[in-house]
Design brief:
The chain is an alpha/beta fold. Helices cover 35% and strands 16% of the residues. It has one domain: Ureohydrolase domain (Arginase, Chain A, 3-Layer(aba) Sandwich).
């Protein structure tokens, strides 16, 4: 069994973009989460938490070029945080931010816990929508978008056997078959035997009917933080414009509370 990383301070990396567009849709989520006190919650142990803002370096780029630009900035911010023995918490609009985060980590025996109602395991051949978001994990394990990974600075892909998906409840045809044959870890002990460090990815839509509850999700996060060396975290896909009763924000804050 691998040992957890000793207690360390967090650094919030705020990426307020949706597919390269500033503060549109889920891109407005990161600022709302930070404004609601994410830094205060993560700093409740008495260790101050700083917030680092990421923005496009090339304001003229758009589409995939903008996604690459942002993920490069995330990679550099994550790498610097880890070098300072901080745990980066990347609060971003989209799941594809995982590519920038993972690119900033040591790839040797790196594992992923993908806390998401969707496995995001499509490839261009199986995806109906063609959305990059639905291919984020597939790209991270080397199944597609090699050029995007290379442009981001993402070297060796993560081993599929070091990936654990505890909350998937909405899996599409094509994606289901791929996931079934991927050889993913099926338990925390199995993951622990295959990885020496962990990236925890939290998509805020993980809790839905037929899937994991918020309480179960928070308990899982607490357990992971206590038992495994979680060296980076992603919190993605919170869209304030579709959260009229603020339930989504409260769900997100509950998971951030569990990190601390």
């Amino acid at each position: 069994m691998i040992n957890p990383v000793p207690d360390r301070a967090f650094l919030i990396i705020e990426v307020p973009y949706h597919m390269g567009l500033a503060e549109v849709g889920a891109g407005a989520g990161p600022k709302r989460i930070v404004a609601a006190g994410a830094d205060r919650i993560l700093g409740q142990r008495g260790i101050p938490v700083q917030v680092q803002h990421v923005s496009l370096l090339d304001k003229s780029c758009e589409g995939l070029d903008a996604v690459v630009d942002l993920n490069r900035q995330v990679r550099l911010a994550v790498r610097q945080a880890v070098s300072q023995e901080l745990v980066p918490v990347v609060i971003a609009g989209n799941c594809n931010s995982c590519l920038g985060t993972l690119a900033g980590l040591d790839p040797w025996r790196l594992g992923i816990v993908w806390l998401d109602a969707h496995p995001d395991f499509h490839t261009p051949e199986t995806s109906i929508s063609g959305s990059l978001e639905g291919m984020s994990l597939a790209a991270a394990v080397g199944d597609c978008h090699e050029e995007l990974r290379a442009r981001t600075g993402f070297g060796d892909p993560v081993d599929r056997g070091a990936v654990y998906l505890p909350a998937c409840s909405d899996i599409e045809p094509g994606e289901r078959e791929r996931a079934a044959s991927a050889g993913f870890a099926t338990s925390i002990p199995e993951l622990a035997s295959r990885a020496d460090s962990i990236y925890l990815h939290i998509d805020t839509d993980f809790a839905r009917p037929g899937g994991m509850s918020v309480r179960e999700g928070a308990a899982l996060v607490k357990s992971l933080m206590a038992e495994l060396p979680v060296i980076a975290v992603g919190v993605t896909n919170y869209n304030p414009s579709t959260d009229e009763d603020w339930a989504g924000l409260q769900r997100t804050l509950a998971l951030i509370q569990a990190l601390a």
